[in-house]
Amino acid sequence: MTETAGNAIFYIQAIGFLGMLIETLLWQIKNPRHIYAVSVLVTLIWGIHYVFLSAPAAVVYSMISALKYSVMAFVKDERIIPPTVFLTIGSTIFLTLTYYSASYDLVPLFGCLIINMALLKRDNRALFCRAVILGCIGWVYYNAVVGSWFGCLAAALNILSLVIGMYRYEKWNLSISTPNIGFVFFRKLFVIPQI
Asked: Which DSSP string corresponds to the chain?
């Protein structure tokens, strides 16, 4: 590897680190409108990161998400959310199928579908958390394939944060001495919440 190529990889991963850092700090914000506003910045940073990694499906999803979060952050009418979500889903499907070059490019599409459908039931915290976990599992795989180290780490941290939040919020009754703790944990994690 030449020095120039090594520097390029460093800078590409530095952009990913910046995206992961801001995304992690995003968890500390409590106001939904502020979360959406900062999410615009985060998705644009991830989009730039994926452009340099030549990951077209992730670029498409990042840019569409930036538009979606812009609408959700700056339009105060809650009735705008369902049409925005459906427009996001439709445009993501169309553009992903237009630009995808390998089968793994479909993974962000499925994550987008799961997470955006759950946005329609935002008041159901349990459903939304589980949908984001499923979406993030796909993003861990996709980021590993395209070479986004910090994308993998950011998705894994999202999963960890959501699992810890569900454990605390839903008051799971788990302890190390629980028989079959792995099975009980898996059942708690993927119990179908009331819709």
From this structure: --HHHHHHHHHHHHHHHHHHHHHHHGGG---HHHHHHHHHHHHHHHHHHHHHTT-HHHHHHHHHHHHHHHHHHH---GGGHHHHHHHHHHHHHHHHHHH--SGGGGHHHHHHHHHHHHHTTTT-HHHHHHHHHHHHHHHHHHHHHHT-HHHHHHHHHHHHHHHHHHHHHTT----TTSTTHHHHHHHHHT-----
